[in-house]
């Protein structure tokens, strides 16, 4: 009896081996992945690769050759209309074998053979994935430049905290046009008429009392428990 050209003989005869591989290929294309022995997975892989290559061609002759091995017409339809189109831009390597360890009972080495994801593993997708992070990394730099003062001064509006407010200048003085002192700890604001105006260290400046009140600050001296 002639021996197979590659790998061990499956089943008791060449006809039985052909039937085993055909059934394995049918299950692989139907479910996308199957678990079997490592020997069967290695013998199935080249057969599955050849069938996917014929499905990529899509001609009538290729379909007839595949139907000699796969008798389920619905699986052949999926192979030619979905799987073949999925690997249209892939030159090869449509399946992957992963070792799973020995099987309980007879200790036979097991493996999982599956169809790889064409979009995730294709060379074009890998190049696109490498370029994408570089573009995203450049975006925060543009945002940082947009937040910088255009005139180069130290004055900076307190963004995200209070509307119509400004932070003290580097020397602690008020920006131009801002006369209302605000204290964030007490949430009080002091006008120039306030007796504590000179003693208060401004943490935030407002132009008008209405701006301070809109930000949630209360005027110092309006309640009994006001402190400096």
UniProtKB/TrEMBL annotation:
Signal peptide: none annotated. Residues 125-134 have a biased composition (Basic residues). It comes from the Bacteria. Gene3D superfamilies: Ribosomal protein L17. GO terms for cellular component: cytosolic large ribosomal subunit. InterPro entries: Ribosomal_bL17 (IPR000456), Ribosomal_bL17_CS (IPR047859), Ribosomal_bL17_sf (IPR036373). This is Large ribosomal subunit protein bL17. It comes from Kribbella rubisoli. The gene is rplQ.
């Amino acid at each position: 009896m002639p021996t197979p050209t590659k790998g061990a003989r499956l089943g008791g005869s060449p006809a039985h081996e052909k039937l085993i591989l055909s059934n394995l290929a049918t299950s692989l294309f139907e479910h996308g992945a199957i678990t079997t022995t490592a020997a069967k997975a290695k013998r199935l892989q080249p057969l599955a690769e050849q069938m996917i290559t014929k499905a990529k061609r899509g001609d009538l002759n290729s379909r007839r050759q595949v139907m000699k091995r796969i008798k389920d017409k619905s699986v052949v339809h999926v192979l030619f209309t979905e799987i073949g189109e999925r690997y249209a831009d892939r030159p090869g390597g449509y399946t992957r074998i992963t070792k799973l360890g020995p099987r309980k009972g007879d200790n036979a080495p097991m493996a999982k053979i599956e169809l790889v994801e064409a979009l995730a593993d294709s060379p074009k997708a890998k190049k696109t994935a490498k370029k994408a992070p570089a573009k995203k990394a450049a975006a925060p730099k543009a945002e940082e430049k947009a937040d910088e003062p255009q005139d180069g001064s130290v004055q900076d509006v307190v963004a995200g905290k209070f509307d119509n407010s400004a932070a003290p200048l580097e020397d602690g003085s008020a920006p131009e046009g801002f006369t209302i002192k605000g204290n964030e700890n007490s949430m009080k604001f002091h006008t120039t008429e306030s007796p504590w105006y000179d003693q208060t260290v401004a943490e935030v400046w407002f132009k008008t009392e209405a701006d301070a009140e809109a930000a949630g600050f209360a005027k110092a001296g309006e309640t009994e428990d006001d402190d400096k």
